Amino acid sequence: MDFKASGIMTLTSDFGLADPFVGTMKGVMLRINPALRFVDISHQIPPQDILEGSFCLQSAYAYFPSGTVHLAVVDPGVGSLRRPLIAVTRDYLFVGPDNGLFSFVFSDPTFQGAYGLTAEKYFLRPAGATFHGRDVFAPAAAWLSAGTPIEEMGQRIHDPMTLKFPEPRVVGTSEVQGEIIHVDRFGNLISNISQELYERLRSGWGNRPIRISILAQGIGRIVRYYGEGSEEEPFALFNSSGLVEIFWKGSNAAQKLGVKRGEKVHLYVV
Amino acid sequence: MDFKASGIMTLTSDFGLADPFVGTMKGVMLRINPALRFVDISHQIPPQDILEGSFCLQSAYAYFPSGTVHLAVVDPGVGSLRRPLIAVTRDYLFVGPDNGLFSFVFSDPTFQGAYGLTAEKYFLRPAGATFHGRDVFAPAAAWLSAGTPIEEMGQRIHDPMTLKFPEPRVVGTSEVQGEIIHVDRFGNLISNISQELYERLRSGWGNRPIRISILAQGIGRIVRYYGEGSEEEPFALFNSSGLVEIFWKGSNAAQKLGVKRGEKVHLYVV
Amino acid sequence: MDFKASGIMTLTSDFGLADPFVGTMKGVMLRINPALRFVDISHQIPPQDILEGSFCLQSAYAYFPSGTVHLAVVDPGVGSLRRPLIAVTRDYLFVGPDNGLFSFVFSDPTFQGAYGLTAEKYFLRPAGATFHGRDVFAPAAAWLSAGTPIEEMGQRIHDPMTLKFPEPRVVGTSEVQGEIIHVDRFGNLISNISQELYERLRSGWGNRPIRISILAQGIGRIVRYYGEGSEEEPFALFNSSGLVEIFWKGSNAAQKLGVKRGEKVHLYVV
């Protein structure tokens, strides 16, 4: 594996910003690689919510410079037998627990392989059993960012854990059922229906107008940007990740509709 | 325009810290200018609250080194015809939507001009219509921080949008009515009455003692620091931005008084 | 005093992240030392809660590189006669109010001395009476990080303020009463009972099994990591700071047990 570290490290976790967990990890890393520069992606992942952590990192990672190390810790199994993992793509390294958090990496077309992180000499000593973010993942990520070869940190593995993300489901010949996979700060409802799927459905359904509903509430047509919606009813658009997103102009759609993550979204023709 | 970039970029937005929006913008910028260093001013601006965003950046911007680029995104009109803007003062560049967020810049005594940001070759391609923070403002700010001349990014404009901030209002001959324009984390109530106005009133009113009230609650006199207040009633002081601020020693004044932003403050003599 | 600054500055405060206080302090510091790099430890210390601020910084500071300046501001007495302080250990400088926030520093085995920070020429001018974070502590910390000798900033003092932290209390011959001193984001309850004390008790009590209870709820035995607990009842472990911590696998122990900071924890043998 050939990886040219850029000196940039992103962090994603469920540690929050009130406790000193994140600052402590950064301190540990700066002792190993004083030149490191950090970018926080999010530390507000709901506690132990691996799917949300995965979704969050997935939508951000490819915007970073080649050579970035992405450290992510959402780790309900800390201390147990779940493996610490390094995953490698053409441009990035990923370091964190092998619990599905990096599922999207394994389907990246430039994915090059995964390693179990076993070389304890790169861990903080003595490494405890309750805060591997500090004792295992942070030091390993810092050593990797400083140029330590991946092969020195562990062995190649071929069975990294993959989580099943909710997939849209075809219902009969004229409906597809998707799901809200994220609610953002503005209350916008992000579904797992991609623009590509939407357009395939549209042509498959003879270019008839596709209707969208959630909790029996009809959604106005697909518009291009938020300002094109209405304050009277929710609309949809293809968002900045290419997903169908339901919003309510000037309001919080999640609150107004009473919708949470996991709610079903219906696309159909009549 | 002559601007010597310091390599420092501040960020102000209503994106929050739970979603990956802010991290994504930083990734985009580091790809363009890997040496950039970021300082977050706030990402907790209430959603789409341009006035709060403006107030927040206004109280912080002048403390940064000359050559700082201030990127700010509170952008309910994203995707519509509102222009992307660059504003220039002697020491700083400001990049964000032309929706009044930078009103205070245009009255900075060192203001040098505003530019519409139109050179699409500096945008992320393809630029979407829903996240100009990532696709338009971040890349433009990063190119500017890397030395791209402002003139290459767009054309001079002479009508940037200005928001009317609430102004104190004279009521008869013995009263001025101000307004709470911000409530801080401690529950302190920041008004739009400046120390300068207060002192002009005082001499105009013959140096009689000025009384202050809010929601019919009388406020103790003006003291110098929080510890000089009392735990029995609210007091006021001139805060670190030179504004009259109402506080309650050891408590959260906003909660105790039931006051929100927008509440009127009365200064009067009897 | 001999201090080789690393160019790394940590920040701990009760300023929150919504207001521009923290960004403003960083701007002030970058004007003095443009090469500074910041690591936020926490800005979510509950308003004016010196004990929590102290606990937070105490658990993180030693993980940073030698030469780090730790700036901490939880400062209910701002503007009053409480002194601004510099504290020195072999590896670190601490800058902030002399109100007990740095109590743990004075018992660090490498503690070298404390200084009153009095040289006003290093303050922001004019320094106000309400935001010493910006006007006094940030500039002083930045000058120190840039190599200004401590002796130039103030005079040696021998009576820095120390706060009494809650200590475990022996009750009769078979019980020790501790206290919850922190509740983390996951709802884990961190007590002031160290692993060392626990093991001393255990041998003092003839290696009989130690029982733990809180609010009359018995706690399962001490396990090694969270996954070894049960979803049926709370368990305990020695956490990453070496303290007895009560958790509830897959849940928020604080919520499930109705426990807040300050609650008593009982260790006893029968």
- Which parts of chain A are unreliable, with pLDDT below 50 for 5 consecutive residues or more? none
What is the domain total for the residues of chain A?
2
User: What gyration radius of chain A follows from the Cα positions, in whole Å?
Assistant: 21 Å
Overall 3D geometry of chain A? elongated
Judging by the overall fold, what is the CATH architecture of the largest domain in chain A?
3-Layer(aba) Sandwich
- The arrangement of helices and strands of chain A along the chain is EHEHEEEHEHHEEEEHEEEEEHE
Within CATH, the superfamily of the largest domain in chain A carries the name S-adenosyl-l-methionine hydroxide adenosyltransferase, N-terminal
The level of helicity of chain A is 10-25%
Number of strands of chain A: 16
Oligomer: homotrimer
Summarize the structure.
The first copy, chain A, is built from 7 helices and 16 strands. Chain A has 270 residues and is α+β, with helices and mostly antiparallel strands.
Describe the model.
Three copies of one chain form a homotrimer. Chain A contains seven helices and 16 strands. By secondary structure, chain A is an alpha+beta fold. Chain A folds into two domains: 8-157, Rossmann fold; 169-269, Elongation Factor Tu (Ef-tu), domain 3. In chain A, helix 1 packs parallel to helix 4 (132-145). The longest helix of chain A has 14 residues, at 132-145. Chain B binds chain C through residues 6, 8, 10, 17, 37, 39-45, 56-57, 59-61, 63-65, 68, 184-186, 224-228, 237-240, 245, 250, 252, and chain C through 14-20, 22-24, 26-28, 30-31, 34, 37-38, 47-48, 76-80, 128-131, 134-135.
